[in-house]
Design a protein that fits this description.
12 helices, alpha/beta, nine-stranded parallel sheet
Length: 266
């Protein structure tokens, strides 16, 4: 079994959902980013979704855009971001690590080259939100060649055909959107989504992980009650850094992750 399969099997045995924090690599600089990533892992994160900073992030709301801009201002490039991933991988060898990266960064570097570098860094999965399913053949081929799972997004208004395709093609997990729009705890998740999760289960898809607008323990419990295998928490986590002295940020993030992780225990 790969790292995701091991994780979900272990959590099923414990009757727990997965808590997957999202953080932007290099925010606000490489060293503090590494410290903050380690803090959320030590606090109970079951896996990580990490973003590579990009200047035109079409799927992200203002909080994540600001995080990307801080990282870019600190000079964080895709190679530096992958070097950070390699440091995290070296410290946590069994932790599933997913990347969220925009298509221009993958295609600009060369699809084969990017996947090879990501694999070397220790990446388990890639989510490229601006590559539609119908144009995903090249990245699926690269993923298969380099042993990286391709994760696809299922929006709440997906047609039956799209749902079937996402269920068939998404590996590692399915990123299920709680609502349309961009990321951000500024707009709360809209649940329940039992019908979508039931459909994915019927089609024997990878586990459904709910994201977009998840920020409270009650929302975590609601997602799991609806049948999700876990949640991704991004903007709410990143926003916890606001107004906090830099040396206190790791502890602040850790406390929040601990509270959310507790809510995944059923």
């Amino acid at each position: 079994m790969n790292r995701y399969q091991n994780l979900f099997a272990r959590l099923r045995d414990r009757n727990e959902g997965a808590l997957i924090p999202f953080l932007m690599l290099g925010d606000p600089n490489a060293e503090q980013s590494f410290e903050r990533i380690c803090a959320v892992v030590e606090a109970g994160a079951d896996a990580l979704e990490l973003g590579i900073p990009y200047s035109d992030p079409v799927a992200d709301g203002p909080t994540i855009v600001a995080a990307a801009n801080r990282a870019l201002a600190a000079g964080v490039t895709p190679p530096l971001a992958l070097a950070l991933v390699a440091r995290v991988r070296a410290k946590y060898p069994s932790l599933p690590i997913g990347l969220l990266v925009y298509a221009n960064l993958v295609y600009g570097a060369g699809v084969e080259h990017f996947f090879a570098e990501a694999r070397t860094a220790g990446v388990d999965s890639l989510l490229i939100p601006d590559v539609p399913l119908r144009e995903s053949a090249l990245i699926r081929e690269a993923g298969a060649k380099h042993g990286i799972e391709n994760v696809f997004i299922l929006p709440p208004n997906a047609s039956a055909e799209t749902q079937a395709e996402v269920a068939r093609l998404s590996q590692g997990y399915v990123y299920l959107l709680s609502r349309a729009g961009v990321t951000g705890s500024e707009t709360a998740a809209q649940m329940p989504l039992e019908h979508l999760i039931a459909g994915l289960t019927t089609q024997q898809s990878a586990p459904a992980i709910l994201g977009f607008g998840i920020s409270t323990p009650d929302q975590v419990r609601g997602a799991l009650a609806a049948g999700a295998a876990g949640v991704i928490v991004g903007s709410a986590l990143v926003s916890r850094q606001r107004g906090v002295a830099a040396e206190q940020v790791p502890a602040t993030l850790a406390q929040y992750v601990t509270e959310l992780k507790q809510a995944t225990r059923r």
